[in-house]
Amino acid sequence: MRILVLDLHIDKNPDAALRIVNALEPCFDGNLELTRFYSRDFDFNALFDFDGIILSGLDKSRLLYSGKMQRLKSYIRQLESAAQILGICGGHQVLATAYSYTVHEIKPEVGWHSVQLTTPGKCDPLFHNIK
Q: Which residues of 101-115 are buried (b: 16+ CB within 10 A; e: fewer)?
């Protein structure tokens, strides 16, 4: 399985996307090819080369409406049936606005949080290899 982690950070370029990559690798028992790109260096046509795409967070919510993000949203809509897409934090907002959902500004929340999967969550194919 080929998965792209598209790092949407523009200014600070934190290592959050790398944490996503490191968290995923053990879940696929060597049957995973992970690629990480920064959105500033990325050719959007390459999105069609992956089975799955993970969108990281953004540095600033105003970037949701930048020209580059508008272009990404257009590609996301074209990919709808070709790849599985997961948005984390600001990446989730990119997905929501790509499909014209309203995104409300709330108090920022930063950091990683432990979560517990519910019984139905443990049975969901999306989370089947996650401990």
A: eeeeeeeeeeeeeee
Q: pTM above the 0.85 mark? A: no
- DSSP conformation class of 20: H
Better-predicted residue by pLDDT, 28 or 118:
118
Distance CA 91, CA 9 (A): 10
* pLDDT tens column, 87-103: 888 888 888 888 888 87
1-39 burial code (b ≥16 CB/10 A, e <16): eebbbbbbbbeeeeebbeebbeebeeeeeeebebeeeeb
How far is residue 8's CA from residue 17's CA, in Å, rounded to a whole number? 9
Question: How is residue 110 annotated by DSSP?
Answer: -
Distances in Å between the Cα of 90 and the Cα atoms of 24, 69, 128 are 19, 11, 25
What is Dmax (Cα atoms) for the chain?
A: 41
The letter for the amino acid at 78 is: Q
